[in-house]
Amino acid sequence: MKKKHPIEELISQGEHQQLDFKFEVSDSKKIARTLSAFANTDGGRLLIGVKDNGVIAGVRSEEEYYMIEAASTMYTRPPVPFEAKRWDIQGKTVLEVYIAPSPDKPHAAPDKDDKYKAYIRVNDENILANEILIFSWQKEQESKGILLKINKPVERLFDWLDTHTYINANQFCRIGRINYFTARNILSDLMAIGALQYAVVDKRILYCRRTP
Fold first, then answer.
1. For the whole model, what pTM was predicted?
2. Is residue 186 packed enough to be buried (19+ CB in 10 Å), middle (13-18) or exposed (0-12)?
3. DSSP characters over 66-86
4. What is the pLDDT along the chain (212 residues), one digit of tens a residue?
5. Using CA atoms, how far apart are residues 176 and 152, in angstroms rounded to an integer?
6. What angle do CA 200, 33, 131 make, to 5 degrees?
């Protein structure tokens, strides 16, 4: 039995959290959002020259690489590093672009109004990161560490999570008897120290205990 080409192996997985197909790259700003989402989440691969249905179309020219490079260097802040490799398959060329999960989150990219926003990858989509995620990433970068008091709102939060899988910020405000800004700070602190993690359910960002 003939062994599958590495690109065919990837294509057979279909698009998912760490894999995206692009027929072509015609907009560096748009592709920057995907670079941001991969870097801010679990990393991933872009296959340029592959249609959404997995058909290999091939890249048109060197221009595809330069569009990715522009997305990385000009339209992500801070720039998202990438590795690129060209594959010849079925007489066509596919450009594989790998983005590692970043230790320098958040990476932002321009939205449709050219405002820089941070994105995360959820299944095969890029969605906006919220303020709490961004705060938690920024706190992870701080060298001075985080001093978190185990106060009543924190106790109520973990009591809630003993019987519920997830909580959102508004629920925490209610059960913790605190305002949004206090809830935001506590949730982002707990995520930054690894006590909580986020999950996306029906495109809503929720918070839960970190799984081992």
1. 0.90
2. buried
3. HHHHHHHHHSSBS----EEEE
4. 667 888 999 999 999 999 999 999 989 999 999 999 999 999 999 999 999 999 999 998 788 899 999 999 999 999 999 999 999 998 999 999 999 999 999 999 999 999 999 999 999 899 999 999 999 999 988 756 666 677 999 999 999 999 999 999 999 999 999 999 999 999 999 999 899 999 999 989 999 999 87
5. 7
6. 50
| Alpha-carbon span 114 to 29, nearest angstrom | 9
Q: Which CATH architecture has domain 6-124?
A: 2-Layer Sandwich (3.30)
* Token representation of residue 43: 């990393």
The CATH class, in words, for 132-209 is mainly alpha
Both tokens assigned to 190: 């707990």
Residue 112: partners with Cβ closer than 8 Å, 6 or more residues away? none
The per-residue DSSP string of 118-141 comes to EEEEETTEEEE--HHHHHHHHHHH
